[in-house]
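quick one, 183 residues, struct below
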Amino acid sequence: MRPAIEFIKDTFGTISLIGVEVGVQKGRHSEEILKALNVKELWLVDIWDEYNMLVEDQNLVLNFKEYESVVRKKFKNDERIRIIKECSVVASKSFNDYYFNFVYIDANHNYGSVKEDIEAWFPKVNKGGIICGHDYNNEEQKWKGVEEAVNEFVKKHNLELHLGELDWWAIKDDSWKDKYLGD
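---
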């Protein structure tokens, strides 16, 4: 289980959750989320298209078109799953602010895309909810754009950044804990 999902599990326990995974690829991580958490709704957002990603000074062309059918087939009988084929920022506009308990971002890894994704989805996270993502990797510096965008975001919003393996996460506002967990 990815560290951010483990943190969500430890934080919310058995509370029924609404979440979104931005950047789904084949849905392997979506399956892990469904197994680990008590999910009422899990929205899967991906464009499942070809796009360019700058990685370690190489321009990679990635093609995820064939993965959409894999995901639709995999989750066709799961009533908790909602699928949106759309770019992340546009898809975020489909939801009211404070809708999600957690947002997991793992889409395009260039700085501009990560920054846009985080800024678009952060208002959609409940107070006490968790914004998180994948491929924050300080040691290898493989995803410099992810790190730069995340670091800038948490500083801008005065959030505490948590790291575990390749995951990052931040709590939008933890004042809810007093109400639900006591001292």
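The longest helix spans residues 144-156.
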